[in-house]
Protein backbone atom coordinates (compact mmCIF):
# COMPACT_ATOMS: atom_id res chain seq x y z
CA UNK A 1 0.00 0.00 0.00
CA UNK A 2 0.96 3.61 -0.57
CA UNK A 3 -0.25 4.58 2.92
CA UNK A 4 2.90 3.94 4.94
CA UNK A 5 5.30 5.71 2.57
CA UNK A 6 2.97 8.69 2.20
CA UNK A 7 2.60 9.02 5.95
CA UNK A 8 6.29 8.90 6.64
CA UNK A 9 6.88 11.64 4.09
CA UNK A 10 4.33 13.81 5.89
CA UNK A 11 6.02 13.07 9.22
CA UNK A 12 9.47 14.26 8.18
CA UNK A 13 8.83 17.91 9.17
CA UNK A 14 7.92 16.76 12.71
CA UNK A 15 11.11 14.78 13.30
CA UNK A 16 14.27 16.23 14.81
CA UNK A 17 17.74 15.35 13.62
CA UNK A 18 18.87 13.52 16.71
CA UNK A 19 22.28 12.71 15.21
CA UNK A 20 23.21 16.40 15.03
CA UNK A 21 22.37 17.29 18.63
CA UNK A 22 23.53 15.88 21.98
CA UNK A 23 21.49 12.92 23.19
CA UNK A 24 19.24 13.77 26.15
CA UNK A 25 20.51 11.97 29.24
CA UNK A 26 18.26 12.85 32.17
CA UNK A 27 14.95 11.68 30.79
CA UNK A 28 11.83 12.77 28.96
CA UNK A 29 8.20 13.63 29.62
CA UNK A 30 5.13 14.20 27.49
CA UNK A 31 1.51 15.29 27.81
CA UNK A 32 -1.19 16.96 25.77
CA UNK A 33 -0.04 20.37 27.08
CA UNK A 34 3.50 21.39 26.17
CA UNK A 35 3.35 23.90 29.05
CA UNK A 36 2.89 21.05 31.53
CA UNK A 37 5.53 18.91 29.84
CA UNK A 38 8.03 21.76 30.18
CA UNK A 39 7.19 22.01 33.88
CA UNK A 40 7.82 18.28 34.31
CA UNK A 41 11.08 18.55 32.43
CA UNK A 42 12.21 21.42 34.66
CA UNK A 43 12.06 19.15 37.70
CA UNK A 44 14.23 16.57 35.95
CA UNK A 45 16.77 19.34 35.39
CA UNK A 46 16.58 20.28 39.08
CA UNK A 47 17.63 16.76 40.07
CA UNK A 48 14.20 15.23 40.41
CA UNK A 49 13.02 12.04 38.78
CA UNK A 50 10.04 10.80 36.79
CA UNK A 51 7.84 10.65 39.91
CA UNK A 52 8.51 14.31 40.74
CA UNK A 53 7.93 15.32 37.13
CA UNK A 54 4.63 13.42 37.04
CA UNK A 55 3.24 15.09 40.16
CA UNK A 56 4.17 18.54 38.82
CA UNK A 57 2.66 17.81 35.40
CA UNK A 58 -0.60 16.55 36.90
CA UNK A 59 -0.88 19.67 39.06
CA UNK A 60 -0.39 21.80 35.95
CA UNK A 61 -2.85 19.78 33.88
CA UNK A 62 -5.59 20.05 36.50
CA UNK A 63 -5.09 23.81 36.61
CA UNK A 64 -5.26 24.53 32.89
CA UNK A 65 -7.34 21.60 31.61
CA UNK A 66 -9.87 21.32 34.43
CA UNK A 67 -12.45 20.20 31.90
CA UNK A 68 -10.93 16.72 31.73
CA UNK A 69 -8.70 16.15 34.75
CA UNK A 70 -7.63 17.36 38.16
CA UNK A 71 -7.59 16.50 41.84
CA UNK A 72 -11.37 16.03 41.78
CA UNK A 73 -10.93 12.97 39.55
CA UNK A 74 -8.97 9.72 39.49
CA UNK A 75 -7.27 7.16 37.27
CA UNK A 76 -4.44 4.66 36.92
CA UNK A 77 -0.66 4.67 36.82
CA UNK A 78 1.75 2.01 35.60
CA UNK A 79 5.19 2.27 37.18
CA UNK A 80 8.41 0.59 36.06
CA UNK A 81 10.99 0.69 38.84
CA UNK A 82 14.71 1.07 38.10
CA UNK A 83 15.25 -2.61 39.00
CA UNK A 84 12.80 -3.65 36.27
CA UNK A 85 9.89 -4.55 38.55
CA UNK A 86 6.41 -3.11 38.04
CA UNK A 87 3.40 -1.92 39.96
CA UNK A 88 -0.08 -0.96 38.82
CA UNK A 89 -1.62 1.84 40.90
CA UNK A 90 -5.40 2.10 40.93
CA UNK A 91 -6.56 5.54 42.08
CA UNK A 92 -9.89 5.34 40.27
CA UNK A 93 -12.79 7.12 41.98
CA UNK A 94 -14.96 4.94 44.23
CA UNK A 95 -18.72 5.02 44.75
CA UNK A 96 -19.79 6.49 48.12
CA UNK A 97 -20.86 3.81 50.62
CA UNK A 98 -24.54 4.77 50.36
CA UNK A 99 -24.68 4.39 46.57
CA UNK A 100 -26.22 1.50 44.62
CA UNK A 101 -28.03 0.90 41.34
CA UNK A 102 -31.48 0.76 42.96
CA UNK A 103 -31.25 4.48 43.70
CA UNK A 104 -31.32 5.23 39.97
CA UNK A 105 -33.78 2.45 39.11
CA UNK A 106 -36.36 3.86 41.54
CA UNK A 107 -35.72 7.39 40.27
CA UNK A 108 -35.16 7.25 36.49
CA UNK A 109 -34.76 11.02 36.27
CA UNK A 110 -31.73 11.01 38.59
CA UNK A 111 -28.61 11.91 36.63
CA UNK A 112 -25.37 9.95 36.63
CA UNK A 113 -23.67 12.82 34.79
CA UNK A 114 -24.60 16.09 36.49
CA UNK A 115 -25.05 16.86 40.17
CA UNK A 116 -24.06 15.38 43.51
CA UNK A 117 -25.17 11.80 42.84
CA UNK A 118 -22.74 11.62 39.91
CA UNK A 119 -19.61 12.11 42.04
CA UNK A 120 -17.27 9.30 43.05
CA UNK A 121 -14.71 9.75 45.82
CA UNK A 122 -11.79 11.51 44.06
CA UNK A 123 -8.56 9.52 43.99
CA UNK A 124 -5.99 11.54 42.02
CA UNK A 125 -4.23 13.07 45.02
CA UNK A 126 -3.95 9.69 46.76
CA UNK A 127 -2.54 8.28 43.54
CA UNK A 128 0.06 11.03 43.25
CA UNK A 129 0.86 10.57 46.92
CA UNK A 130 1.54 6.87 46.32
CA UNK A 131 3.78 7.62 43.34
CA UNK A 132 5.73 10.33 45.16
CA UNK A 133 6.06 8.67 48.57
CA UNK A 134 7.30 5.43 47.01
CA UNK A 135 9.52 6.87 44.27
CA UNK A 136 9.94 10.67 44.43
CA UNK A 137 13.16 12.52 45.26
CA UNK A 138 12.26 16.19 45.65
CA UNK A 139 10.05 17.59 48.44
CA UNK A 140 6.31 17.31 47.75
CA UNK A 141 5.85 20.97 48.65
CA UNK A 142 8.06 22.15 45.76
CA UNK A 143 6.19 20.29 43.03
CA UNK A 144 3.07 22.45 43.09
CA UNK A 145 4.75 25.86 42.78
CA UNK A 146 4.48 26.13 38.95
CA UNK A 147 0.79 25.18 38.98
CA UNK A 148 0.12 27.65 41.79
CA UNK A 149 1.76 30.40 39.73
CA UNK A 150 -0.36 29.54 36.69
CA UNK A 151 -3.57 29.54 38.73
CA UNK A 152 -2.75 32.80 40.51
CA UNK A 153 -0.95 34.82 37.83
CA UNK A 154 -2.85 33.55 34.82
CA UNK A 155 -2.79 30.99 32.01
CA UNK A 156 -3.85 31.13 28.39
CA UNK A 157 -7.16 29.72 27.21
CA UNK A 158 -5.52 27.59 24.57
CA UNK A 159 -7.30 26.34 21.47
CA UNK A 160 -8.10 22.93 22.94
CA UNK A 161 -9.55 24.42 26.12
CA UNK A 162 -11.62 26.91 24.13
CA UNK A 163 -13.10 24.15 21.99
CA UNK A 164 -14.11 22.32 25.18
CA UNK A 165 -15.69 25.50 26.54
CA UNK A 166 -17.90 25.87 23.46
CA UNK A 167 -19.34 22.39 23.97
CA UNK A 168 -21.08 23.57 27.16
CA UNK A 169 -23.49 25.72 25.15
CA UNK A 170 -26.80 23.80 24.96
CA UNK A 171 -27.28 22.11 21.61
CA UNK A 172 -23.62 22.34 20.69
CA UNK A 173 -21.84 19.09 19.92
CA UNK A 174 -18.22 18.49 20.78
CA UNK A 175 -16.31 20.22 17.96
CA UNK A 176 -13.94 17.89 16.20
CA UNK A 177 -12.82 20.05 13.28
CA UNK A 178 -9.56 21.85 13.83
CA UNK A 179 -9.63 25.64 14.13
CA UNK A 180 -6.27 27.22 13.20
CA UNK A 181 -4.69 29.68 15.59
CA UNK A 182 -4.67 32.44 13.01
CA UNK A 183 -8.45 32.50 12.70
CA UNK A 184 -10.58 34.80 14.82
CA UNK A 185 -12.16 33.09 17.85
CA UNK A 186 -15.73 31.92 17.32
CA UNK A 187 -18.16 34.66 18.35
CA UNK A 188 -21.50 33.39 17.04
CA UNK A 189 -22.04 31.47 20.28
CA UNK A 190 -23.01 34.73 21.99
CA UNK A 191 -26.51 34.57 20.51
CA UNK A 192 -27.12 30.98 21.62
CA UNK A 193 -28.44 29.74 25.01
CA UNK A 194 -26.02 30.37 27.83
CA UNK A 195 -23.38 27.89 28.96
CA UNK A 196 -23.17 26.87 32.63
CA UNK A 197 -19.66 28.33 32.44
CA UNK A 198 -21.42 31.69 32.09
CA UNK A 199 -24.41 31.18 34.37
CA UNK A 200 -22.86 29.29 37.28
CA UNK A 201 -21.48 31.87 39.75
CA UNK A 202 -18.51 29.64 40.62
CA UNK A 203 -17.43 28.93 37.03
CA UNK A 204 -18.32 32.30 35.52
CA UNK A 205 -15.40 34.39 36.90
CA UNK A 206 -12.93 31.93 35.36
CA UNK A 207 -14.41 31.29 31.94
CA UNK A 208 -16.60 34.28 31.05
CA UNK A 209 -16.82 38.05 31.02
CA UNK A 210 -19.82 40.30 30.42
CA UNK A 211 -22.07 37.31 29.79
CA UNK A 212 -19.86 35.74 27.10
CA UNK A 213 -17.28 32.99 27.08
CA UNK A 214 -13.73 34.27 27.13
CA UNK A 215 -12.16 33.99 23.66
CA UNK A 216 -9.32 31.69 22.74
CA UNK A 217 -5.84 32.99 23.56
CA UNK A 218 -7.13 35.26 26.36
CA UNK A 219 -5.76 34.98 29.89
CA UNK A 220 -7.69 33.76 32.93
CA UNK A 221 -6.91 32.99 36.58
CA UNK A 222 -8.07 30.61 39.32
CA UNK A 223 -7.05 32.32 42.58
CA UNK A 224 -9.20 30.09 44.79
CA UNK A 225 -7.68 26.99 43.27
CA UNK A 226 -4.21 28.50 43.74
CA UNK A 227 -4.94 28.72 47.47
CA UNK A 228 -6.07 25.08 47.47
CA UNK A 229 -2.91 23.90 45.72
CA UNK A 230 -0.81 25.82 48.23
CA UNK A 231 -2.68 24.11 51.08
CA UNK A 232 -2.10 20.68 49.53
CA UNK A 233 1.58 21.48 48.92
CA UNK A 234 1.99 22.59 52.53
CA UNK A 235 -0.18 20.04 54.35
CA UNK A 236 0.09 17.07 52.01
CA UNK A 237 -2.53 15.06 50.09
CA UNK A 238 -4.45 14.26 53.25
CA UNK A 239 -5.73 17.84 53.30
CA UNK A 240 -8.40 16.84 50.76
CA UNK A 241 -9.56 13.77 52.67
CA UNK A 242 -10.08 15.24 56.14
CA UNK A 243 -10.38 18.71 57.61
CA UNK A 244 -11.47 21.96 55.99
CA UNK A 245 -11.16 20.98 52.32
CA UNK A 246 -12.94 17.69 52.95
CA UNK A 247 -15.86 19.41 54.69
CA UNK A 248 -16.17 21.92 51.87
CA UNK A 249 -16.20 19.11 49.31
CA UNK A 250 -18.89 17.10 51.09
CA UNK A 251 -21.03 20.21 51.62
CA UNK A 252 -20.85 21.07 47.89
CA UNK A 253 -21.85 17.53 46.91
CA UNK A 254 -24.74 17.38 49.38
CA UNK A 255 -25.97 20.80 48.22
CA UNK A 256 -26.39 19.23 44.78
CA UNK A 257 -28.23 16.15 46.05
CA UNK A 258 -25.28 13.80 46.63
CA UNK A 259 -24.71 11.20 49.34
CA UNK A 260 -20.95 11.38 49.91
CA UNK A 261 -19.79 11.71 53.50
CA UNK A 262 -16.58 12.59 55.30
CA UNK A 263 -16.24 8.89 56.11
CA UNK A 264 -16.16 8.12 52.37
CA UNK A 265 -13.29 10.54 51.85
CA UNK A 266 -11.37 9.34 54.89
CA UNK A 267 -11.74 5.68 53.89
CA UNK A 268 -10.40 6.10 50.36
CA UNK A 269 -7.10 4.42 49.53
CA UNK A 270 -5.25 3.38 46.40
CA UNK A 271 -4.89 -0.24 45.34
CA UNK A 272 -1.42 -1.35 44.25
CA UNK A 273 -1.39 -4.52 42.19
CA UNK A 274 1.00 -6.37 39.88
CA UNK A 275 0.93 -5.27 36.25
CA UNK A 276 -0.55 -7.48 33.53
CA UNK A 277 1.96 -8.50 30.87
CA UNK A 278 2.28 -10.11 27.44
CA UNK A 279 5.21 -11.33 25.36
CA UNK A 280 4.64 -9.78 21.95
CA UNK A 281 7.18 -10.55 19.20
CA UNK A 282 9.99 -10.93 21.80
CA UNK A 283 9.04 -7.64 23.50
CA UNK A 284 7.24 -7.41 26.82
CA UNK A 285 4.15 -5.21 26.97
CA UNK A 286 2.68 -4.30 30.36
CA UNK A 287 -0.43 -2.45 31.46
CA UNK A 288 -2.74 -2.02 34.46
CA UNK A 289 -5.14 -4.55 35.92
CA UNK A 290 -8.92 -4.15 36.02
CA UNK A 291 -10.87 -2.00 36.54
CA UNK A 292 -8.46 -0.61 33.93
CA UNK A 293 -8.79 -2.18 30.47
CA UNK A 294 -5.11 -3.02 30.14
CA UNK A 295 -5.81 -6.72 29.71
CA UNK A 296 -7.96 -5.94 26.65
CA UNK A 297 -5.04 -4.16 24.98
CA UNK A 298 -2.95 -7.26 25.60
CA UNK A 299 -5.76 -9.45 24.23
CA UNK A 300 -5.81 -7.51 20.94
CA UNK A 301 -2.03 -7.77 20.66
CA UNK A 302 -2.23 -11.47 21.53
CA UNK A 303 -4.59 -12.03 18.62
CA UNK A 304 -2.42 -10.03 16.21
CA UNK A 305 0.76 -11.85 17.30
CA UNK A 306 -0.15 -14.84 15.12
CA UNK A 307 -0.23 -12.83 11.90
CA UNK A 308 2.57 -11.62 9.66
CA UNK A 309 3.69 -8.00 10.09
CA UNK A 310 2.32 -6.05 7.17
CA UNK A 311 0.38 -2.99 6.08
CA UNK A 312 -2.41 -4.33 3.92
CA UNK A 313 -6.16 -4.45 3.46
CA UNK A 314 -6.41 -7.81 5.18
CA UNK A 315 -4.29 -6.54 8.07
CA UNK A 316 -6.73 -3.66 8.66
CA UNK A 317 -9.58 -6.19 8.64
CA UNK A 318 -7.79 -8.43 11.14
CA UNK A 319 -7.15 -5.50 13.46
CA UNK A 320 -10.85 -4.61 13.45
CA UNK A 321 -11.80 -8.23 14.14
CA UNK A 322 -9.30 -8.46 17.02
CA UNK A 323 -10.76 -5.24 18.45
CA UNK A 324 -14.28 -6.65 18.36
CA UNK A 325 -13.28 -9.80 20.22
CA UNK A 326 -11.45 -7.62 22.76
CA UNK A 327 -14.50 -5.47 23.43
CA UNK A 328 -16.62 -8.60 23.73
CA UNK A 329 -14.26 -9.75 26.51
CA UNK A 330 -14.36 -6.34 28.19
CA UNK A 331 -18.04 -6.66 29.10
CA UNK A 332 -17.01 -9.26 31.71
CA UNK A 333 -14.59 -6.96 33.55
CA UNK A 334 -15.14 -4.90 36.69
CA UNK A 335 -13.58 -4.02 40.04
CA UNK A 336 -11.48 -7.00 41.27
CA UNK A 337 -12.22 -6.00 44.88
CA UNK A 338 -15.81 -7.08 44.18
CA UNK A 339 -15.34 -9.69 41.42
CA UNK A 340 -12.82 -12.23 42.62
CA UNK A 341 -12.36 -14.08 39.33
CA UNK A 342 -11.28 -11.00 37.36
CA UNK A 343 -7.52 -11.52 37.70
CA UNK A 344 -7.76 -15.10 36.46
CA UNK A 345 -10.17 -14.12 33.70
CA UNK A 346 -8.00 -11.28 32.41
CA UNK A 347 -4.96 -13.58 32.23
CA UNK A 348 -7.02 -15.94 30.10
CA UNK A 349 -7.72 -13.09 27.66
CA UNK A 350 -4.06 -12.82 26.70
CA UNK A 351 -3.09 -16.47 26.97
CA UNK A 352 -1.60 -17.80 23.69
CA UNK A 353 -4.35 -20.41 23.39
CA UNK A 354 -6.98 -17.67 23.51
CA UNK A 355 -5.24 -15.77 20.74
CA UNK A 356 -5.13 -18.94 18.65
CA UNK A 357 -8.84 -19.57 19.27
CA UNK A 358 -9.79 -16.03 18.27
CA UNK A 359 -7.72 -16.20 15.08
CA UNK A 360 -9.55 -19.41 14.18
CA UNK A 361 -12.82 -17.45 14.38
CA UNK A 362 -11.58 -14.60 12.17
CA UNK A 363 -12.50 -14.96 8.51
CA UNK A 364 -10.12 -12.95 6.30
CA UNK A 365 -12.90 -12.44 3.75
CA UNK A 366 -15.72 -11.07 5.90
CA UNK A 367 -16.80 -9.68 9.24
CA UNK A 368 -19.61 -11.15 11.34
CA UNK A 369 -22.73 -10.15 13.23
CA UNK A 370 -22.13 -8.66 16.70
CA UNK A 371 -23.10 -11.87 18.53
CA UNK A 372 -20.12 -13.64 16.94
CA UNK A 373 -17.80 -11.69 19.27
CA UNK A 374 -19.63 -12.71 22.48
CA UNK A 375 -20.45 -9.19 23.73
CA UNK A 376 -23.72 -10.34 25.34
CA UNK A 377 -25.16 -7.04 24.03
CA UNK A 378 -23.80 -5.20 27.06
CA UNK A 379 -23.03 -1.53 26.91
CA UNK A 380 -19.54 -0.14 26.41
CA UNK A 381 -19.22 2.94 28.59
CA UNK A 382 -16.94 5.87 27.88
CA UNK A 383 -14.92 8.43 29.84
CA UNK A 384 -14.02 10.97 27.16
CA UNK A 385 -12.62 13.75 29.33
CA UNK A 386 -9.31 12.03 29.99
CA UNK A 387 -5.70 13.23 30.39
CA UNK A 388 -2.63 11.22 29.39
CA UNK A 389 0.88 11.80 30.78
CA UNK A 390 4.18 9.89 30.65
CA UNK A 391 7.56 10.41 32.32
CA UNK A 392 10.83 8.48 32.30
CA UNK A 393 14.30 9.17 33.69
CA UNK A 394 17.85 7.93 33.34
CA UNK A 395 17.57 5.70 36.44
CA UNK A 396 15.05 3.49 34.67
CA UNK A 397 12.00 4.83 36.54
CA UNK A 398 9.11 5.08 34.06
CA UNK A 399 5.54 6.20 34.79
CA UNK A 400 2.57 6.09 32.45
CA UNK A 401 -0.51 7.73 33.94
CA UNK A 402 -4.08 8.39 32.83
CA UNK A 403 -6.48 10.48 34.89
CA UNK A 404 -9.95 11.92 34.38
CA UNK A 405 -12.95 13.76 35.81
CA UNK A 406 -14.92 11.76 33.21
CA UNK A 407 -17.21 13.89 31.01
CA UNK A 408 -16.22 17.49 30.36
CA UNK A 409 -16.12 19.31 33.72
CA UNK A 410 -17.34 16.12 35.36
CA UNK A 411 -20.45 16.59 37.49
CA UNK A 412 -20.30 20.34 36.75
CA UNK A 413 -19.80 20.93 40.46
CA UNK A 414 -16.92 23.23 41.34
CA UNK A 415 -16.47 23.49 45.09
CA UNK A 416 -16.96 27.24 45.74
CA UNK A 417 -14.38 27.56 48.51
CA UNK A 418 -11.62 25.46 46.88
CA UNK A 419 -12.12 25.66 43.10
CA UNK A 420 -11.94 21.86 42.79
CA UNK A 421 -13.89 20.43 39.82
CA UNK A 422 -15.60 17.20 40.90
CA UNK A 423 -15.93 14.17 38.66
CA UNK A 424 -19.03 12.35 37.40
CA UNK A 425 -17.49 8.89 37.70
CA UNK A 426 -20.82 7.25 38.59
CA UNK A 427 -21.69 7.51 34.89
CA UNK A 428 -19.01 4.91 34.14
CA UNK A 429 -20.96 2.29 36.07
CA UNK A 430 -23.72 0.23 34.51
CA UNK A 431 -27.17 0.87 35.96
CA UNK A 432 -29.31 -2.22 36.51
CA UNK A 433 -32.49 -1.98 34.47
CA UNK A 434 -31.33 1.04 32.48
CA UNK A 435 -30.24 0.43 28.89
CA UNK A 436 -27.61 2.61 27.31
CA UNK A 437 -28.01 5.09 24.44
CA UNK A 438 -27.91 2.26 21.89
CA UNK A 439 -30.59 0.15 23.61
CA UNK A 440 -28.23 -2.49 24.99
CA UNK A 441 -28.36 -3.99 28.43
CA UNK A 442 -26.06 -2.95 31.29
CA UNK A 443 -23.13 -5.15 32.30
CA UNK A 444 -23.77 -6.89 35.66
CA UNK A 445 -20.01 -6.99 36.38
CA UNK A 446 -20.09 -3.19 36.45
CA UNK A 447 -23.19 -2.50 38.59
CA UNK A 448 -22.90 0.18 41.28
CA UNK A 449 -22.04 -0.85 44.83
CA UNK A 450 -20.78 1.27 47.70
CA UNK A 451 -16.98 1.45 47.61
CA UNK A 452 -16.78 -0.11 44.15
CA UNK A 453 -14.78 1.42 41.31
CA UNK A 454 -16.27 1.59 37.80
CA UNK A 455 -14.76 -0.14 34.80
CA UNK A 456 -12.54 2.18 32.80
CA UNK A 457 -10.96 2.32 29.35
CA UNK A 458 -7.87 4.00 30.83
CA UNK A 459 -4.90 1.74 30.12
CA UNK A 460 -1.34 3.05 30.54
CA UNK A 461 1.30 0.99 28.69
CA UNK A 462 5.05 0.34 29.03
CA UNK A 463 7.10 -1.73 26.56
CA UNK A 464 10.49 -3.42 27.08
CA UNK A 465 12.81 -4.55 24.31
CA UNK A 466 13.88 -8.22 23.94
CA UNK A 467 16.74 -7.65 26.42
CA UNK A 468 14.38 -6.36 29.11
CA UNK A 469 15.38 -2.71 28.75
CA UNK A 470 12.85 0.10 28.71
CA UNK A 471 11.87 0.95 25.14
CA UNK A 472 8.59 2.83 25.05
CA UNK A 473 5.69 4.13 27.11
CA UNK A 474 2.41 5.70 26.10
CA UNK A 475 -0.72 6.93 27.78
CA UNK A 476 -3.90 7.76 25.92
CA UNK A 477 -7.06 9.80 26.39
CA UNK A 478 -10.28 9.30 24.48
CA UNK A 479 -12.81 7.21 26.39
CA UNK A 480 -13.65 3.84 24.88
CA UNK A 481 -11.22 4.53 22.00
CA UNK A 482 -8.22 4.38 24.34
CA UNK A 483 -7.94 0.60 24.12
CA UNK A 484 -7.72 0.40 20.35
CA UNK A 485 -5.50 3.46 20.08
CA UNK A 486 -2.99 2.01 22.55
CA UNK A 487 -2.86 -1.38 20.84
CA UNK A 488 -2.17 0.28 17.47
CA UNK A 489 0.47 2.61 18.92
CA UNK A 490 2.31 -0.34 20.47
CA UNK A 491 2.21 -2.24 17.16
CA UNK A 492 3.56 0.83 15.37
CA UNK A 493 6.62 0.78 17.64
CA UNK A 494 7.25 -2.96 17.82
CA UNK A 495 6.08 -4.19 14.42
CA UNK A 496 7.11 -1.25 12.26
CA UNK A 497 9.98 0.30 14.22
CA UNK A 498 8.44 3.76 14.33
CA UNK A 499 9.74 6.62 16.43
CA UNK A 500 7.57 7.93 19.26
CA UNK A 501 6.13 10.67 17.08
CA UNK A 502 5.55 8.41 14.09
CA UNK A 503 3.74 5.91 16.31
CA UNK A 504 1.38 8.62 17.55
CA UNK A 505 0.88 10.29 14.18
CA UNK A 506 -0.09 7.15 12.27
CA UNK A 507 -3.87 7.06 11.60
CA UNK A 508 -6.11 4.89 13.79
CA UNK A 509 -9.14 2.76 13.12
CA UNK A 510 -11.68 1.80 15.76
CA UNK A 511 -14.49 -0.70 16.31
CA UNK A 512 -16.04 -1.57 19.68
CA UNK A 513 -18.92 -3.72 18.32
CA UNK A 514 -21.60 -1.28 19.47
CA UNK A 515 -22.45 1.12 17.93
CA UNK A 516 -22.26 -0.75 14.63
CA UNK A 517 -19.55 1.36 13.00
CA UNK A 518 -15.92 0.95 12.06
CA UNK A 519 -14.36 4.41 12.08
CA UNK A 520 -11.27 5.52 10.16
CA UNK A 521 -9.43 8.77 10.75
CA UNK A 522 -9.58 10.99 7.69
CA UNK A 523 -7.06 13.43 6.22
CA UNK A 524 -6.70 16.61 8.26
CA UNK A 525 -4.75 19.07 6.05
CA UNK A 526 -4.76 21.78 8.72
CA UNK A 527 -2.67 19.48 10.92
CA UNK A 528 -0.58 18.10 8.03
CA UNK A 529 -2.19 14.78 8.95
CA UNK A 530 -2.65 11.96 6.44
CA UNK A 531 -5.47 9.57 7.27
CA UNK A 532 -6.81 6.42 5.70
CA UNK A 533 -7.57 6.42 1.99
CA UNK A 534 -10.82 5.72 0.15
CA UNK A 535 -9.24 2.46 -0.98
CA UNK A 536 -8.69 1.44 2.66
CA UNK A 537 -12.35 2.15 3.42
CA UNK A 538 -13.60 0.27 0.36
CA UNK A 539 -11.54 -2.80 1.27
CA UNK A 540 -13.25 -2.89 4.67
CA UNK A 541 -16.66 -2.25 3.13
CA UNK A 542 -16.11 -5.21 0.79
CA UNK A 543 -15.66 -7.39 3.88
CA UNK A 544 -18.96 -6.22 5.38
CA UNK A 545 -17.76 -3.52 7.79
CA UNK A 546 -19.96 -0.46 8.27
CA UNK A 547 -17.27 2.14 7.65
CA UNK A 548 -17.33 5.81 8.53
CA UNK A 549 -14.60 8.46 8.28
CA UNK A 550 -14.11 10.65 11.37
CA UNK A 551 -11.92 13.68 12.08
CA UNK A 552 -8.80 13.18 14.14
CA UNK A 553 -8.82 13.86 17.86
CA UNK A 554 -11.20 11.27 19.28
CA UNK A 555 -8.15 9.65 20.90
CA UNK A 556 -5.07 11.60 21.97
CA UNK A 557 -1.84 10.06 23.29
CA UNK A 558 1.53 11.02 24.76
CA UNK A 559 4.67 8.93 24.40
CA UNK A 560 8.33 8.58 25.40
CA UNK A 561 10.82 6.24 23.76
CA UNK A 562 14.47 5.43 24.46
CA UNK A 563 17.03 3.71 22.23
CA UNK A 564 20.82 3.72 22.31
CA UNK A 565 20.82 5.07 18.77
CA UNK A 566 18.50 8.07 19.23
CA UNK A 567 18.50 8.58 22.98
CA UNK A 568 15.31 9.97 24.51
CA UNK A 569 12.32 10.89 22.38
CA UNK A 570 9.27 12.67 23.77
CA UNK A 571 6.22 13.13 21.58
CA UNK A 572 2.85 14.79 21.98
CA UNK A 573 -0.01 13.75 19.76
CA UNK A 574 -0.21 15.93 16.61
CA UNK A 575 -3.99 15.60 16.89
CA UNK A 576 -3.84 18.23 19.66
CA UNK A 577 -2.63 21.75 18.92
CA UNK A 578 -1.12 22.29 22.35
CA UNK A 579 0.47 18.88 22.98
CA UNK A 580 4.19 18.27 23.23
CA UNK A 581 6.99 16.46 24.96
CA UNK A 582 10.15 17.72 26.65
CA UNK A 583 13.57 16.11 27.08
CA UNK A 584 16.31 16.92 29.57
CA UNK A 585 19.97 17.19 28.58
In short:
The chain is of the alpha+beta class and about 575 residues long.
> Proportion of β residues?
15-25%
Distance N terminus to C terminus?
Answer: 39 Å
> Going across the major beta sheet, what is the strand order?
8-3-2-12-11-1-22
Radius of gyration over alpha carbons?
22 Å
**What general outline do the C-alpha atoms trace?**
globular
Give your account of this protein's structure:
With 585 residues, this protein is of the alpha+beta class. It has a domain at 155-220. Helices cover 31% and strands 17% of the residues. The chain has 19 helices and 22 strands. The strands form six sheets. The protein has a seven-stranded antiparallel beta sheet, with helices on one face. Strands 9-10-15-16-20-21 form a six-stranded antiparallel beta sheet. It has a three-stranded mixed beta sheet with strand order 17-18-19, with helices on one face. Helix 3 packs parallel to helix 6 (145-153). The longest helix is centred in the middle third of the chain and has 18 residues, at 313-330. It is globular. The two termini are 39 Å apart. The model is unreliable at 1-22 and 174-191 (pLDDT under 50).
